[in-house]
Specification:
Distance between the termini: 14 Å
Number of strands: 0
Order of helices and strands: HHHHHHHH
Number of helices: 8
Largest sheet: none
Shape: globular
Structural class: mainly alpha
């Protein structure tokens, strides 16, 4: 917490504050890196790339909601829109709404293990991709749902790997 206003701090105090609090930005940084990874060329027989950033947002929202408030979905979504080429604002609008939906549904669903979390995530991921498809069809030329459906299936399939990656990040970098 800043005890003195930012403009009254010396350069050394500002640098010290940034150095002490950089771990608070780890969720945002990791999700933007996941969006960047989704732009890398992948040589596969099918055009399938899981939405790694959405999985990490889901996991952070479920397990560490205090590190990722809903407002962080806007800059992450805008970064995803710019990097992935979707209409600007589509992910920026849907990501905070997705985070609110996850938090709302988490209150009413009892999850006992990571398999329960995996099953809990399936309808949420389908709803997100369906909403993204409809929103993109409103502002751009409509495209078939099959590519997003295969991305949803791939995203569901890599959930255990994303959960393992998330756990490693939390153990190493958690504030």
């Amino acid at each position: 917490m800043i005890t003195t206003p930012w403009h009254q701090m010396t350069a050394r105090e500002r640098a010290r504050w940034i150095f002490d609090h950089w771990k608070l930005a780890i969720p945002l940084i990791v999700v933007v890196i996941a969006y960047m990874m989704m732009t890398l060329p992948m040589f596969a027989p099918l055009p399938v790339m899981p939405n790694l950033a959405l999985l990490l947002v889901l996991l952070w929202t479920l397990y560490r909601p205090q590190q990722m408030p809903e407002w962080t979905g806007l800059p992450m979504g805008l970064a995803g829109d710019i990097l992935l080429g979707t209409p600007v604002g589509a992910n920026g609008l849907l990501l905070p709404l997705f985070m609110m939906l996850v938090r709302y549904a988490d209150v009413y669903v009892r999850r006992a293990s990571w398999v329960g979390d995996w099953l809990f995530s399936i309808p949420l991921l389908f709803v997100y991709h369906l909403a993204l498809w409809r929103l993109c069809a409103l502002v751009a030329d409509p495209f078939p749902f099959l590519p997003l459906a295969t991305q949803t299936v791939a995203t569901i399939a890599v959930y255990p790997f994303a959960a393992h990656f998330f756990a490693r990040i939390q153990r190493r970098w958690a504030p």
